Model the fold of this input.
Amino acid sequence: MSKVQDAVVEIQSALTKRLKLEAPRFALESAGSKVSGSIISDSFKGMADSERQRRIWDALDEEYGAESVHRAGTFLAFTPDEWDLSEDSDSRD
Amino acid sequence: MADESKKPKAMGEADYRKGALDRIGESFILLRNEAFGGSAYLAGRGAEGALRAVLWKADPEIQQGKKSLDTGHDLRKLLTNVRNLGLLHAGGPDDPLITAVQRVARLWYNNMRFESSRAVETRWYQLGEVTGKRTIKQAASEFYDACSVVIKRCEALCQKSRMP
Done:
């Protein structure tokens, strides 16, 4: 596995464990030394986006400490309903 | 004569998309550190970039340079252009995006980039967004949430397999 894949897998695993994510799906990519992308899980239901971000960054800080800002870029946190809207709109036309 | 190869490359869907992701990420860092003016400015800029990414990806004429993407920084106009491409439908799951763009467009303005956080707070006070009972912290947090709705929906639209 490449270093990039390693970094992506490590972040996925850390977030799944720390946030106790239910059936998570990830669409992450590495840009330079940082991993960014989308996280999809029912665990975000009922939370405003700012709250989702607080939890994600608290989890990353717990896992990596001050290193977190060097490893992580931006994560968008979706519920499955929010993410799968694109499929719904395909069939609406 | 200018060397054509040294001209900056025109921005495309991926550039706008990744820029929007970076801006909303940076906005949250500022929000977390209670730098509300900068947070609001970057979140709004991210929303603009995300709408531009969708337009670029969905409109072949923009990709071919036959049509300009330069709509200024009018978020409502960008939303109208997205809607005109048949990508949004009122009265359904796109409603949160439409509502969020209206909310962001009311509070965000391009000159925010020059203003102090205090000036942004004063403007939002005049608009009734900040009141005696509703702090700039609450207002900035909800503004961030609205921009996130826009960026996330645009990200999902960009993932649509049917889009060119």
